[in-house]
UniProtKB/TrEMBL annotation, chain B:
Belongs to the binding-protein-dependent transport system permease family. LivHM subfamily. GO terms for biological process: amino acid transport. Keywords: Amino-acid transport, Cell membrane, Membrane, Transmembrane, Transmembrane helix, Transport. The chain crosses the membrane at residues 15-38, 45-62, 68-90, 102-122, 142-164, 193-215, 227-254, 261-282. InterPro entries: ABC_transp_permease, BCAA_transport_permease. Signal peptide: none annotated. This is Branched-chain amino acid transport system permease protein. It is a multi-pass membrane protein. One of its GO terms (cellular component) is plasma membrane. One of its GO terms (molecular function) is transmembrane transporter activity. It comes from the Bacteria. It is found in: Cell membrane.
């Protein structure tokens, strides 16, 4: 009961805070919510299944580019472009999963990193269509759409904020149902001891593949929403650094906690935002945060809180 | 230029790349082989080697050769000391857990890179070669310094091989690689070996960087390409196999130039990265490595 109350409370707080935030933070929080969805997808694989991917930016970028380019080059409309982006993300994660999950441990990290790099290079290679680092800016026709009799204007900050919040709530619900249910327990069992889980009669490969596809699809959804809402797709979103960002958000908030990635995204976004006002070497914060976290707080903020004070925290 | 001389030039350039790549990848391979640690910050240690070389060379206003050879000695020592300290302060405390060390070395990557950006700045700066001597071939002139780099790399490789296979130190390292616990049972100070190996791996990268910096300038982002190429070499050669690393580095270094002539460099990179990822998936012991025990 208090678990459900906590999550509804967090979402309600995010809904209410939009009425008091100044413009800049209003926009920033919209971005952070989409990045949090990406990190939540990442957490599905890293936090719950124990698979550390270093190439998750490719799923984010798949959603971003497929949705963005569909909206840019065709007139299928925004909702359809969004759906196509998600489907392509799901298909890509299925293919990558079937190949990469043949490896474990260190090899899995390096293989995913290399596939991520291949995805990035592919985007740069087809620079005639993707415009590489310079990126594509969505035309005005792709800035608004009608769905079920509702007119949605993506240039309107309020509608954008609540759309992002809606997606965040949906993701939270899906992840909550999955990890609290029997599947989640099997995934955690795989994280703790894969051989034993296999011996208990679970098809661990299929479970891992399922987790990777769900994780990749959620990340792709975040990417598709990001590209369409902010009207820009560019190859920087596919770099290794973006993969590491998801890892960092998850580690900071607490891997294997439902709300951890959200908390981690908010904190890290503002930490980088504040440092970048003072120095161009703002990535130093990323480096220091990674080392400090892994040395002193390997469980992250919510993981530590759960361990010390609130054992019921999901 | 006719095809023959053109191929000769491509081969010479490929050999130069292979020489530097072998030294860098050997450092990565040594660290992975003995410690089972994937050092993502390896490329940044290479970059640090080049930047320190510029710093040392710029302090000597005498003949460029003095500055260069001073850098060749001092830069690896400084980089080795930094690596040694980070091993003691970070990796050792993580108990060499594979996942945590990867995350920690990613952090180290950013810390080193951004600290250099803060202090050294975003500019690329040259170090002058110790000597200028052009070898005039019938078709084109070729820098004698490039040949010096290749020769130096071969000498260093032989030295590493000698240490590993003919000295007591090498025996201790191989014993640790073969079976950590058994080695410890025989009284080998594992922790000191690890710290030494981590520093030695960094020093190999730093030496490679000092050798190349008169040809390519020192820049704070120069570490990424050597890192990815070293990964490719170490995987192809078999994780932890030194002989495989050398063969793979020669193969990659030589083919890189030639492939780039026929395809676009980006396409060449896409194909090679994809192939290497597939090698790691389907043949994890590498193309030349021994089967994993």
């Amino acid at each position: 009961m208090r678990v459900i109350a906590l999550h509804v409370g967090v979402l309600a707080a995010l809904f209410l805070v939009q009425f008091v935030l100044p413009d800049y933070h209003h926009l920033a929080l919209t971005r952070v919510m989409l990045l949090a969805i990406y990190a939540m997808g990442y957490n599905m694989l890293f936090g719950y299944t124990g698979l550390l991917s270093l190439g998750h930016a490719m799923f984010f970028a798949a959603g971003l580019y497929v949705a963005g380019m569909t909206a840019y080059y065709t007139d299928l409309g925004v909702p359809l472009a969004f759906l196509i982006g998600i489907c392509c993300g799901a298909a890509l994660s299925l293919v990558i999963g079937v190949i990469a999950l043949r490896t474990t441990g260190v090899a899995f990290m390096i293989v995913t990193m290399m596939f991520g790099q291949v995805a990035y290079l592919t985007i740069t290679y087809f620079t005639d269509y993707t415009r590489g680092e310079e990126g594509l800016t969505m035309p005005t026709s792709a800035r608004s759409f009608d769905l079920l009799g509702l007119h949605v204007d993506l240039t309107n900050a309020v509608q954008r904020y609540n759309l992002a919040l809606g997606l965040l709530a949906l993701t939270l619900l899906v992840i909550f149902v999955v990890v609290r249910g029997p599947i989640g327990r099997v995934l955690i069992a795989i994280r703790e001891n894969e051989t034993r889980t296999l011996m208990l009669g679970f098809d661990t490969f299929r479970m891992k593949l399922g987790a990777l596809v769900l994780s990749g699809t959620i990340s792709a959804m975040a990417g598709a929403a990001y590209g369409l809402m902010f009207a820009y797709v560019g190859s920087t979103f596919a770099t290794i650094q973006y993969s590491i960002e998801a890892l960092l958000f998850t580690l900071l908030g607490g891997a294997g906690t439902v709300l951890g990635p959200l908390l981690g995204s908010i904190l890290m976004f503002y930490m980088i935002d504040i440092t970048s006002e003072y120095t161009q070497a703002y990535l130093l914060v990323t480096g220091v945060a990674l080392v400090v976290l892994v040395l002193f707080f390997p469980k992250g903020i919510l993981g530590t809180i759960r361990e010390r004070w609130l054992p019921w925290l999901p | 230029m006719a095809f023959g001389p053109f191929l000769l030039l491509a081969t010479l350039e490929g050999l130069l790349q292979a020489a530097v790549l072998t030294l860098t990848a050997l450092g990565l391979s040594l660290v992975f082989g003995v410690m089972r640690v994937v050092n993502v910050a390896h490329g940044e240690l290479y970059m640090l080697g080049a930047v320190v070389a510029w710093w040392v060379a710029s302090m000597f206003s005498l003949h460029p050769a003095v500055g260069f050879f001073a850098a060749l000695v001092i830069s690896p020592l400084i980089v080795g000391a930094i690596a040694f300290a980070s091993e003691r302060l970070i990796l050792k405390r993580l108990n060499y857990d594979p996942e945590s060390t990867i995350v920690a070395t990613i952090g180290m990557l950013y810390i080193i890179q951004q600290t250099v950006l803060l202090t050294y700045g975003p500019d690329a700066r040259p170090v002058s070669a110790p000597f200028y001597y052009r070898i005039q071939l019938p078709w084109f002139g070729y820098s004698g310094y490039n040949l010096f780099v290749i020769a130096a790399a071969i000498v260093l490789l032989l030295a590493v091989w000698f240490v590993l296979s003919r000295t007591r130190l090498g025996l201790i390292m191989r014993a640790t690689q073969f079976d950590r616990e058994m080695a410890q049972a025989f009284g080998i100070p594992i922790e000191r070996v690890y710290a030494f190996v981590f520093a030695a791996g960094a020093m190999l990268a730093a030496v490679a960087a000092v050798l190349i910096v008169p040809i390519r300038q020192a820049h704070y982002l120069m570490g990424l390409d050597p890192l990815l190429l070293s990964f490719i070499v170490v995987i192809l050669g078999g994780l932890g196999s030194l002989r495989g690393t050398v063969i793979a580095a020669l193969l990659i270094g030589l083919s890189d130039g030639i492939i780039s002539v026929f395809f676009s460099p980006t396409l060449a990179k896409i194909i090679s990265t994809l192939l290497v990822a597939l090698v790691l998936v389907f043949k994890p012991e590498g193309l030349f490595g021994a089967k994993a025990r």
